[in-house]
Every structure is written in structure tokens, then in C-alpha cells.
Amino acid sequence: MTTPATLSYAIELDRQDTLAHFRERFVIDDPDLIYMDGNSLGRLPRATEQLATELVRQQWGARLIRGWGESWFSAPERIGAKIAQLIGAEPDEVIMTDSTSVALFKLIVAALRAQQGRNRILSDDMNFPSDLYIIQGIIELLDKGHRLEVVPSPDGIHGPAAEIRAHLDEQTALLTLSHAAFKSGYVYAMKEMTEAAHAVGALVLWDLSHAVGAMPIQVREANVDLAVGCTYKYLNGGPGSPAFLYIRRDLQERLNNPITGWMGQRNLFDFSLDYQPAEGIRHFITSSPPIISLSLVEPGVDLLLEAGMEKLRAKSLQQSAYLLELWRQELEPLGFSLKSPLDEKYRGSHISLGHPEALRIDQALIHEFNVIPDFRAPDNIRLGLTPLYTSFRDIYHTVMRLKQIVVEKVYENYSLEAPIIT
């Protein structure tokens, strides 16, 4: 049966949506704005807005330094334990730390030091570029003969899973991949890839940034060694909110934090001049946590736990199927290509559509049609489906406005020069 490309059908889907009420839990300043970029920066939860005031006025303003003993010091572990529930980890295996890049640096250096005699680091060209930049910098810093090998995707959409498995050997120290690719949304089979790396003695580090909060993840079940993830996308933690890292429990004493600091010291207040790492994952903290931005991650995580990741994933798949059906009917005849996997098993929670005029179409959506997606070079328009607040009506109107922009050639009014932020 063909999905009706009508507004009334989208309204009916919203009426049937058991998660629709979560939309009211977010600040929506402009009800006419269609926000399709939650895969890049999540909306502001109302509870976060309230907490921000309480943090500044009460916890900081009134309680002053007493806040450290009351809730601040334990915040990295407390919030980490909640995120652990989203990724299938034990509570003491996840902790909030620095930015994603710094967390990656720490884990990669720790992994390479633990893998003496192995010099290959394996990744793919679907990985987030910053991850590769960090590896390149580490190789230069360590100067131990390590080399990075980047396996190309066969089509720019799907990860080169078979090719990576073929490249794994006894010299591979580390395999590091994005669980969900940032451009296409391709999702690796985490357990199978991890098992393949372990079969040759390699450690595995997953970047969960485009997957956590969008789909159920089971790092324990997959026997994952290491992982990092940002908190400002599907976790709705706010711009620049700190990242989390995961270290499987049996590796926590084996791996050493390469950026040792006071907050990772075993006895903070004996002020010894010799560093002794704290037990467990806490020794991967370096400096004082950014308490305000860190604390503001918690309400978004609580919303996800309340909704349930299985239910959120089911809605995400229903919405992506709806979007793909509208694409087939309305956009494919106009030259829009699909830049995401068709098979939902290998698809995250954003859909990329390609078009020769993607950049200018993207600008028309933002500046004239009140829709915010994002653009990724060379020709990807990414449409984020964030089930806590994306409606089926949002999807319908986005597709119809894309169609109007191309049919009426509205994009011709916009420059071919890309703005700084796309």
C-alpha cells in the first residue's frame, strides 16, 4: 500500500504516536519552525532551563563551595551511570569527562601504550574527520612507528565492514570507528566488528556520538573495550556539553590516563607530590569538571530513560520509513538521491539526501522556508529524526518544502559559496 503524501495522514500518525507528549517537555520558542537538526544539536529540555537557574542561583550563589560536597564532586559518576543505561554498560564503566576529542585522545593513547609491539591503527573514511585528526596528532606525538590506515567505503554510504575485517592482522593495535557514520547514518554491526578485531588481539574503540540516545546500544553484550560519545546531539545536553567515556571494567586498571591530574588522584586532599591514580574509571578524569555544563546534561538523559530506548528506536524507524516513502514519491523524481542505507538495520536516526544543488537548497530551507536541516559536503542534506520531539508533520512539511524549492527553482536565489557554518 502506498503511503498517502497528505498532511491529514501525517496528522493521523502524530495522533497515534505514544511518545508525542514528550515534545511538550522541550522549549519550542517558534512553533512554526521545523527543526531537523537534532542530530547535530538537540533542543533545550524545559527541565534543563529550570536546572540552569537553580545551579547558578542556589547551588553556586547560595551554597558556594559547599556544592562540591553536596553534588558536584559525584556528578561525573552519577550522570555517567545514567548514560551507562543507554549504552548497555555497567554503572561504573561510564564517566563524564572532557570534550569528545580530549576523551578520544586519552583512550587512544592509553590503548596504544597497552598494545606494545603493535603499530597499526585501523579506521575508515566514514569516521568523523576530527577522530582521524586526533590519531594523526597522536602518531606524531608518540613517535613510536605507529601508522594509521583508513579503509575507504565502497559507495560513500555503507561502511567497509568486509574490507576492514580483511585488513585486521596481528600488527593491528586498535580499530576505531564511528558506530553511526556522521554523513550517511550507516550503523556498523558492533558485536561482529568487535569480535573480528579481538580475534587478532586488537582493541576496539567506538565513537557513539551519532548513535547514543538515538538507538539502543549494547557495549557489554558486544564485549566492547572502549567508547566515547558527545552529549549535545540526541542527549540534548547543550552546545559544548562535555563528553563521556566508557572503559570495560577489566581494562580500567590496565589502561593509564595519559593526562594525569588532580581530579584523577587517589587521595585528592593529602596533596602528595607523587601521582597515584584513583581506583576504577575515575582516574581518567584530569581536571575540575565543568560543573554547570556537565550538570545540564542530566535532564536530557533522564528524558531518554523515561521514554525508553526501544520505544524511541521504534518511532525513529517508523519516521525514517515514512520519510523514505515521501522521498520516493515526491523527491526522487526531482533528482534527490538517497545517501543513507535503505536497510533499517544499518541506519541510524538521520537521513541524508543528495542533490547537485544541495548547498543552495539547504540555504533556501533555512532562510526562506523556516526549516533547519544541515549540509555536509559535497551534496548531503541531513535530516535528523529525533523521536522525543520530531513530529510526522515536521517530516511531511520538510519534504513538501524541499519539493517546492526545486520545482520553483528558489535555490537559484542563493549563493554557491558555502557559509562558515553549514
Defining key terms:
422 residues, alpha/beta, Aspartate Aminotransferase, domain 1, Aspartate Aminotransferase, domain 2, 2 domains, 7-stranded mixed sheet, 4-stranded antiparallel sheet, 13 helices, 12% strand, globular
* Most strands sheet: 7 strands, mixed
Spatial extent as radius of gyration: 22 Å
Number of domains: 2
Task: Average the pLDDT over all residues and give the rounded result.
Answer: 97
pLDDT < 50 stretches: none
Strand content: 5-15%
Largest sheet, order of strands side by side?
2-8-7-6-5-3-4
User: What is the SS-derived class?
Assistant: alpha/beta
Query: What is the terminal separation in angstroms?
Result: 37 Å
Secondary-structure element order, N to C = HEHHHEHEHEHEHEEEHHHEEHEEEH
Which CATH architecture of the largest domain? 3-Layer(aba) Sandwich
Q: What is the number of E strands?
A: 13
Annotated CATH homologous superfamily of the largest domain: Type I PLP-dependent aspartate aminotransferase-like (Major domain)
Overall form? globular
The percent of residues in helical segments reads 25-40%
In the CATH scheme, the class of the largest domain would be Alpha Beta
CATH topology of the largest domain: Aspartate Aminotransferase, domain 2
User: Number of helix segments?
Assistant: 13
Question: In words, what does this structure look like?
Answer:
- By secondary structure, this protein is α/β, with parallel strands linked by helices.
- The protein is 37% helix and 12% strand.
- It has 13 helices and 13 strands.
- It has helices spanning 7-16, 46-60, 67-72, 75-87, 100-114, 129-142, 161-167, 190-199, 291-295, 298-307, 309-331, 358-368, 392-407; strands at 34-35, 94-96, 120-124, 147-151, 172-178, 203-207, 226-229, 244-247, 337-338, 350-354, 371-372, 374-376, 380-384.
- Helix 8 links the parallel strand 5 and strand 6 (203-207).
- The radius of gyration is 22 Å and the shape is globular.
- It starts with 6 loop residues before the first helix and ends in a 15-residue tail after the last helix.
